[in-house]
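Kindly inspect this today.
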Amino acid sequence: MADNKHLLLLAFLLGAPAQSADLVKLDGFLISPTEITQAEYESVTGSNPSFYKGPRRPVENVSWWDAIRYCNLRSTKEGLAPCYNLTTGRCDRSRNGYRLPTGEEWDKAAASSDPQQANLSTGGTKDTAPLLELIRKGTRDVASFAPGKSGLFDMLGNVWEWTGDDEPVISCVIRGGSFLSSKTGWNRGYRSSLEPNRKSRFTGFRVARTAVDDWFEPYNRRPPGYETSTGNLTPLTDIAGLREKWTRILGSMSLKPPSPSARRAAAIRNPGYTGELMYLRTEPDSEARTGSAGPSIQEGTGEAIGRRDSVVRASSIEEKILILRPDHPVRTPTPVVIVPYYDVDVPAGQDLYGRHFEPSRVRAYARLAVERGYIAVAIRWFGESYGERYDEAVANLKTRHPNVTGLGKWVWDAQRLLDYLYTLPDVDRSHIGIIGHSLGAKMALYAAAIDKRINAVVFSEGGIGFHMSNYDDFWYLGDAIHHLPAGTDQHELLALIAPRPFLLIGGDEYDKAESWHYVNAARAVYQRLGKPENIGYFNHHTGHTPTPEAVSLAMRWLDRFLR
């Protein structure tokens, strides 16, 4: 706590206003270490009504209503849920936004305050000259005196502070005294009241928040300069018609979806879970084959996998999937985590003779998910199955379906996978998540934006902005990216996902500090829908490959929303 106090004091001496992260945590609540300064008040409201001017002096000459309006405005600005009904003054303290401290909270916060370390009067009551001199000097900068044991400054003196227990009827309680209050009067509590519309040069306020589980903190570490900025992104004030717009951008397969079906190619057995390697029917004229279920595959042997002709070969209109089921699911029916990638091997953490296998625990999301009790479903990208290489795959796609983009084809395949999962009795339809890295991140983003059946999303180092990655390659959007309506970018996809949970993982190769522009832009939509903490960003700053910490936070995100 001592280091915290010194950092706070240094910040104020250097002129830096306190931010929400600087709140001091006490018993069940958070409270600002100082009275709200004029700089803080003006940065939120655009005005400074104070009589005694100074950016680090406490704001005063504000009514109780002014104080709660500031609380709501600051909450909105920082992506928190406002607490106050500004018509009645009623406060919902279950929300995570800013509010005035209650009387009980204020007493706890002031319990260790020292009246000798406060801007209080030492004058008597017999001579007006000292009184007039104090009125001339007025308030002092916040944190001019040492803090109390709780790390709070100026709980006594400087200005009275509005508090809030209930909606105002006739008057509201103020606490703490002002610079005119006597140092010997502390034993009388410095408690008074004012009409809620009253403004005085002697009264200001500090803010509090209800202490909640701090699970969100790692997902809300905003880089300096990006706290509320949205850059040049078009504001998401009207999102009506966005899904239709993006459906047009992605293009049409011009097909009627086939009946959901998949053929089993091989069985897998690993400690703690079993798996089925399957081929999902994605188009109605699929030449679905019948026959034996195929060989079993034991981890580390590769014996059956070696017979590639019987296991890997599939028609051009089927897609490879791998369904892993835990021996001990979190519950039945069981939540599902979908993992799109180049092939199913890397998500499985097991060589299944795909084209791009690399042993990587931090990319083996399907294996991690099944080990946590989820049904995990890895799915191969069409670019690995429609041709020998990506150019052949796109040529085959355009020959069959000239009006669809590569990402449009992927969305179609994802929808067919969801159709199939909905037929499985052990699948919890209301708890289906998707997590993807790099190419898989793009696949996760587009699938979730278009199909509401996906309930939670993790996007890792895919490049959230068009200019951050190769979206103009013909296996993604190709030429379509050059004919988009003005202002179009992928923050609109985040708006389509809202209020479903969305986490962005960055590493400073594709998703950097600038990615916060997209999160901030979309958070305005999440805020309007009452779910500001359903969108988050964690940057591990180590490059394209996720770190174990990033993977842990990604799985923790899915746990919170799928369990």
Summary: The chain has two domains: 2-212, 242-562.
